[in-house]
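note to self — DONT lose this again. spent like an hour looking for the file last time. sequence + predicted structure for the chain T wanted, 264 res
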Amino acid sequence: MCRWAAYLGSPIYLEDVICRPGHSLVRQSHGATRCHTPVNADGFGIAWYGERAEPGLYRDIMPAWSDSNLRSLTATVKSHLFLAHVRASTGTATSRNNCHPFVVGRWSFMHNGQFGGYDSYRRHAEVLIPDELYHHRKGATDSEALFLMALGEGLDDDPAGAMARATAKFEALARARGTTPHVRLTAAFADGQRLYALRYASDEHAPTLYHRWSGTRGGRAVVSEPLESDETDWLEVPAQSFCTFEGAEVEITPFRPGPLRAAA
């Protein structure tokens, strides 16, 4: 499985989350400890927000630990909100278009997990992406398809509901045409002001998710794995939860896929 980290708060250098901590995201790319695949070498990416509404985006297929450009970028760019991801492919090709995060307009999105047997119903999932959004489909991952489906379900107006409806469609396909596990999912996405995250699985093995507020930095990290082994105040997000982070505030509510939106 992949590993990811996100941050919201006072502007910091990207390296303060991605490179510098003892168990930073770059370290997790070759030494993750809380997933079955400790090496995440199938590409990486960063989406960060600055003065414009749309985020900057940098992605590549190299392992995160071997890209000197990544270290230079993270050491010089500050942001109040950013998403970063290291990828372990679950079957789709190692290509830049398949690297997370994915960006459409002001939205950025990244995902860790799997939809069981996706190759057996990929064509059916493609059909569920609305026509007006399909030109944004650049890669072949289930993650990008889920993002575009959620945008079509009303992500702008109802982030939790849109993600629940999109996940419900995917889970229905996995149960009808795929294999177990039907859904294992953590995701983070942002609109430039708020950060959202969810943790869900159709079985008992939801991927890990933690968050921590730093008063010193005036910001919050939301991560697959804690960034320092000696910090004891990381809070685990319960399985089947949806999180909204805005400023210093946190709202965590139950997450269940569905119901599907009625046709107009």
